[in-house]
Amino acid sequence: MQAADAGAGGGAEGADDGADGPGSPGGAGEATAAALGRAPPVTRPRHAPRPGGDAAATAGRTGGPTYVFALCVPFPSAVEAEIACGSLAPDAEPHGGAVEKQLTVRGSVLAVRWRATNPRLLRISIINFLDQLSLVMRTMQRFGPPATR
Length: 149
Fold this sequence. Notes:
Order of helices and strands: HHEEHEEH
Structural class: alpha+beta
Radius of gyration: 16 Å
Helix content: 25-40%
Mean pLDDT: 73
C-alpha cells in the first residue's frame, strides 16, 4: 500500500516539508511543474508512517487505538478540486461515529483525512470513498473543464 500511496501523496517518506520547499504552494516545485505542463507537487502529511502504510495507530481516546489515514488528490485546477469536494462531502459516514472523515481543499488539492477506532470500518470507508472519487473524476473528464463565467 505504501507504493500506491507514494504517488498519491499519502506517505511521508522523503517528503520536503520546508515552508518554502518544492512541495509548498508557490514553491520552486510548483513553478517547475507549471513549466512542464504537470500538476504541482503535493505537500505530504507531517506524520511518519508506521510499517504497513499510512494507517497509523496512535494512542488516543478510551477504548483502544485510533487509526488515521490521510490522502491528497491533485486536480488540474482549484475549481475542479472544489467541485470534487462538493460532490463528495455530502456523503456522511454510516458507521455511527466510528469513522470520521474530513475533506478540505488547498489550492488545486483535495485533502481527505480519516480517523477511526476500528481498522475494518476505516478500510471500508476508504474503499467506498475511492469508488466515489473515481466516479466524480470520470464524470469531470467526460464533461471537460468547468466553463468560466
